[in-house]
Amino acid sequence: HFIVVPSDTDSLAKTFNQAHMRYSQYHNEKTGKRGHLWQGRFYPCPLHEVHLYTAIRYVERNPVRAGLVNQGEDYPWSSALSHVKGIRDCTNTGYPAENESFVMRLEGLVLGGKEGCLVPAGGG
Q1: Which PANTHER family did the record assign (predicted)?
Q2: Is residue 25 part of a domain?
Q3: Domain-located, residue 123
């Protein structure tokens, strides 16, 4: 899964077209296969801001649910480490993401407030 914000209307399609094409060429060369690797095209789905944070949590927790890592920020291809570091910088509590009750309380928070830190949803 990818959650991206395109810079213009068709940049997302162009980006994924190039990424799919180049990876397919690489894969086919390595495996000696020919033809398409991807079935169908990607599904771009605009997200309302309310659903964006839920989608980000879902994507960043996938490696944990799949048993690949114990914490999302340990997965090398995830944005989770960047987000956790941002939370740590705002809270000055060390490593709050390791505290399950802290993480669960984040469910009701959104980005905003001073320096982009988390604030209660609907509050400032």
Answers
A1: TRANSPOSASE IS200-LIKE DOMAIN-CONTAINING PROTEIN, TRANSPOSASE, Y1_TNP DOMAIN-CONTAINING
A2: yes
A3: no
